[in-house]
Fold this sequence. Notes:
CATH topology of the largest domain: FAD/NAD(P)-binding domain
Helix content: 25-40%
Oligomer: single chain
CATH superfamily of the largest domain: FAD/NAD(P)-binding domain
Strand content: 25-35%
Number of domains: 3
Shape: globular
Radius of gyration: 25 Å
Low-confidence stretches: none
Amino acid sequence: MEKYDLIIIGAGPAGYAAAMRSVDFKKKTLIIEKSNIGGAGITNGALSSKTWWELSRETRILNRGLERYHMRLPDMSFKEVKMEVQNAVKERIALLQEHIEYLKGEDFNGCLAFKKGLAKLTSQNIIEITSEMGVEEVYGDYIILATGGRPRKLDNIPIDEKIIMTSDGIHEMEDWPKSMVVLGAGVIGCEFATIFSSFNKTRVYLIDKGDRILPFEDEDVVKVIEYNMEKNGVIIHRNSKLINMDIVDDRVRYELIHDDGRKEVNFVEKALVSVGREPNYQNLWTEDVNIEITPRGIKDSDTQTSVSNIFAVGDITADIALVNVGELEGRHAVERIFGKPRKDLVYENISSIMFLNPEVAGVGLNEIQAKERGISYKVATLDYNCIARAVAERNTQGFIKLLVSNDAEMKILGMRVVGNHASSAIQAVALLIFMDKGIEELAECVHPHPSITEGIQECVRMLLGTSMFKPSALRGKLSCCVYNGTEYEAIVH
């Protein structure tokens, strides 16, 4: 039986990151993967869906540009768009495979090994691998579980991944659907509603059980996204509960009941069920391995499971299901096993982006979360039409909102950016949150001009009372106020 210092089950973002950190420690490491290197994060998750989004965004922008000259966009082939997405996936997988092959070589003393197959823990150290070559056993001093997650399915909906799909089935379609209903108004559902409506080939319906989509986000953020969705033809079924969804004559029939008791029946060509994800730990270990689980995933303490030498990272745990979080946890677990982490594993400064229209990026707390925690805070908001870069791009839809503590230190609590380049505008603030710093470091920093980050600087200066644009002079475009726990009060300098 071959022995390893560390065995990692799963070569998605979390497992791959863990393996690379183990190589840094020069430990004999084995990665086991049953499917593709990169996991769902590449094949049917973050990379593929964001490639769909980028292509749909380009289409929307091109359409808008052509309209200025009274021209129309040539017909777009679904096959060509799908092929571009597949090429992006293949390109990334090829890069990761090339990287692994090199690390398996003599230059790294063969410290990294890779086996393709289905892994199962038969004890806390022994893993059984089933592959085309048969069954073998390997021994690991330490084990990291990084098998990720999958779309959650509902028992009362006949999901066949052809007519009624999860996000996994999107990549199996052969042509643009003329109509599609999306069940679930969270991030993934709203992203796919944005994607298909932006290609302008599909009539999209979005089922939302509440009175607004993205219920975890601030109302001013959601207002922009909802406006653009509906402007682009998306029908949002607000305050609606799904009674039934089935397949009738190769079409989707779905029935809703609204809060006022009114019922509604619709027929569409396709349906996308987007009601969250669930962890992949089924049949991963035998009864002899006593790993504690919760309804949300494997129970862990700082990535360590209830079995001392077995760790769990990424979407298989009950923590935040994001690629960057999985990578962070994978690296942290290895540092705990073979060394001592320089920093604690914290989630307060995790940056995130929602690929919508426009994109939404955030870090730290939003106003909903700050209020739930009973925090008094100061908040500065600046509209994109005050930012020269946005004006130059001829797209001033969006805003920047910065939250700080309501005290002399004004430590950064969080930020939301809605608009073009949102994702590239938040990193400096994420770093300051991580460093537990106030806002003065940003006040006099020389930003490139013109850039979206100049808007962040202006928010900081508003809070300090030194802004170029005065909120009282540009009402509706700028605001600076304090939330004292019950109401807002304007800050007047």
